[in-house]
Amino acid sequence: xxxxxNRVSLRDRRGVLRHPxxxxxxxxxxxxxxxxILPLLEGVDMILIPGDLTNRHDxxxxxxxxxxxxxxxxxxxxxxxxxxxxxxxxDARSWREIMDESGAHILDNRIEQIRGDLWIGGLSSQxxxxxxxxxxELSAKDGYRLLLCHHPEYFQPLISAHAVDLTLAGHAHxxxxxxxxIPLFAPGQGIFPRLTSGLYFDDRLLVSRxxxxxxxxxxxxxxxxxxxxxxxxxx
Length: 235
Fold this sequence. Notes:
Number of domains: 1
Strand content: 25-35%
Order of helices and strands: EEEHEHHEEEHEHEEEEEE
Distance between the termini: 39 Å
């Protein structure tokens, strides 16, 4: 499966960042091969993973997700939020132990201050009704507010009304099939999904097509994606 590297550059509109943010956004790896991803992570300040390193449809324990997460941590500070595959995998407790021992910052409905001018939160995959209190907690902080949320469909009902500067999401797999650039289906959004790739809502939501695939449905006209994100300091 071809992997595209897409560079996204945004500007801190509120003027709260004192230093730029340079991050790799990696999601939806689904316990797949990762050796081709690692060279692309060199030189970033941080690695941000908005969910689904594992594949819950595989009844065996994940083989590659743990080593990949540890490899990320060895290259740059890594923040990782919880997706639906982590939440619903057969042995979620064992995977949680692997996550906790990896050295990554696990954002399971919690926030952290990365530095004086930058906060990051994780809104985890949940079954309805969804508790979005972590979004309110993040929006109350001073500085740039960055949120990892695996589900782009959470943005409008749970995030858009809050003072979160940028939300990073995945889950949609780019719409799985994209003939002529038209996404056909995404979990959580159904047929002809709206939120599958790129920037939305006045550049407040960035959706990755994901770096891997899973299941028996192939990706067609829809290469995988790694995002190299830069948030520039306001001039």
